[in-house]
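Reply to dn_fold:

You asked what the input looked like. This is it:
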Amino acid sequence: MSEGSKGSLLAFGQVVIGPPGSGKTTYCHGMQEFMGRIGRKVTVVNLDPANEAMPYQCAVDIAELITLPDVMENLKLGPNGGLIYCMEYLEANFDWLQEKLAAFRGHYYLFDCPGQVELYTHHDALKNVFAQLAKWNFRLAAVHLVDSHYCTDPGKFISVLCTSLSTMLHVELPHVNVLSKMDLIEQYGKLAFNLDYYTEVLDLSYLVDHLASDPFFRNYRRLNEKLVEVIEDYSLVSFVPLNVQDKESMRQVMQAVDKANGYSFGDQEHRSLEALMSAAVGADFHFASTLAVQERSLRDLCVV
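and this is what came back:
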């Protein structure tokens, strides 16, 4: 994993980001178990210096380098300033991170990141850490988790879209936005539109019209229209729904991330995934046979 070495093995993984409470640690735990059951060697790296209760098996922990409570106590910083200091300290100690990661060559990496939004929209420390990982031949995708309850509030959903877009542009990694805690969405209230409207981020003018029915937001219609125009002009933001308790949902997110970071399935993983999904939903998933049917159809078309 030496920097600039030619022919060194590629390492694939995910950097799991998002605001506090969006379910990043739970996601890492669930994805570690899911991937483990289909045969991947998964290493979870905790980059959150405030993360003290980790349900997953943590192979590399930033707490060995620096912790948020120590920074706050010794430097008299608040939690936000302390997190920024911790990330800058990590950036200044790349050699520590490189040495720790080198012990897990050939593994798939899950990086559990802090929940401070500014780290992904304004500050450069974590962005520089990701860029350094790329120089070490890591092929990473950013998995940006957003709590699905924001869908029940049009104003909050527009702000989530702005934050997601800003994060995508700042972090500069292949990006998969995820609506987490989908199993709880019904508890948050009724959606104004179908779920597809939110996951595909369809015509947002309907959302602005819906906001205008609220006396408070009616005065800010012009502002909301401009925000929506920016989001639609970039046309980058969409979401994958996630319920960590549902294996089919986990598979869909995993496959979206695999496409984003370039990870390719092996034959053994195909068979393991097929067996796992068959047990989960009570039906057979014949990936190989489906591909064979497609290939036969293509050959028949060529003959014709």
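The first helix runs from residue 24 to 37.
Hope that clears it up.
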